[in-house]
Design brief:
Length: about 290
């Protein structure tokens, strides 16, 4: 099963860490368009870490991106924002000096954590200093790296570099601190549950990581929704609300506000926000806004 990490916080993918792949031979990732008399907004679902050899940039995506004056992502992708991450991680991601992670977990999860840390070749002492949410992201990142995925090949990294080269205006929905606090502000029990789900998903070696990457790259949103739905069910309503649903509502508000203005914007956010029930696309359509696309 794909780790939930690829649907989570973009800031952690960049901070824990281009060339553009060639167009995909069979389709390309899903793309949605909203327009009125003086605005054009593209919505593009991303994956934050990808295999470097996965081809995903098709003609339609390239043309939409080239036409935009502004490139908007989940969070700030600048070097200054990334340099602030160690301070934010220490503030929100580390346990008090007299605590360790294993002591917060039930015996089965404690054993699974130790096994996963060994399997991924991580420093057990460092992981033990982390709060459950931060350990879950670190483990997911290491797992994706082991499976051949890279932040440098992730959609936002590739497109942000291209946007800077072409002089596009860069903007974002959330600051890095706001993104981090989505998980850091969860109650301790929900953080521990998030870590337990992450450990189970990493242990479930079923090859779905590559399959879901390929489904995303060919624009198969039904396959993506089918893969994501049981994962969010396992994660539970608290995590789903915090990571996906609450942010979807806020982002739909922002997109609607931007539509009332003028300009051409290419918005790139995690694909999990644009598929399934109560996605950003669903919420915009429920407002009566015409959204072209799947």
């Amino acid at each position: 099963m794909r780790s939930l990490f690829t649907a989570l916080l973009a800031v952690s993918a960049w901070a824990l860490a281009a060339c553009s792949p060639a167009p995909a031979p069979q389709g390309e990732p899903a793309l949605w368009r909203i327009a009125d008399a003086d605005s054009e907004i593209w919505l593009f679902g991303t994956v934050h870490m990808l295999p470097p050899d996965l081809r995903w940039r098709g003609e339609r995506v390239n043309a939409a991106f080239a036409s935009a004056d502004e490139f908007m992502t989940e969070t700030d992708t600048s070097a200054d924002a990334n340099s602030a991450f160690p301070t934010l991680a220490a503030r929100y991601g580390l346990l008090p000096p007299n605590q360790n992670l294993s002591a917060l977990l039930p015996p089965a999860d404690r054993a699974s954590l130790a096994e996963t840390v060994r399997e991924l070749g991580l420093d057990a002492a460092q992981i033990e200093r982390m709060r459950p949410w931060f350990a879950a992201l670190q483990l997911s990142y290491a797992y994706a790296m082991r499976e051949g995925h890279s932040v440098d090949a992730g959609v936002e990294t590739v497109l942000a570099a291209a946007a800077r080269r072409s002089g596009k205006r860069l903007s974002f929905f959330e600051t890095p601190e706001e993104q981090i606090r989505i998980l850091a502000d969860l109650p301790p029990a929900d953080q521990a549950h998030f870590l337990a789900v992450t450990l189970r998903q990493i242990a479930d070696k079923d090859g779905a990581l590559a399959e879901s990457d390929e489904a995303w790259a060919r624009g198969d949103i039904e396959a993506l929704d089918t893969a994501l739905a049981p994962q969010w069910e396992e994660a539970g309503p608290v995590l789903h609300e915090a990571v996906i649903l609450r942010r979807n509502r806020a982002w739909a508000d922002e997109v609607a506000t931007r539509l009332d203005g003028s300009g051409r914007i290419f918005i790139a956010v995690g694909a999990a926000h644009l598929v399934g029930d109560d996605s950003v696309v669903d919420l915009l359509r429920a407002r009566g806004i015409e959204v072209e696309g799947p």
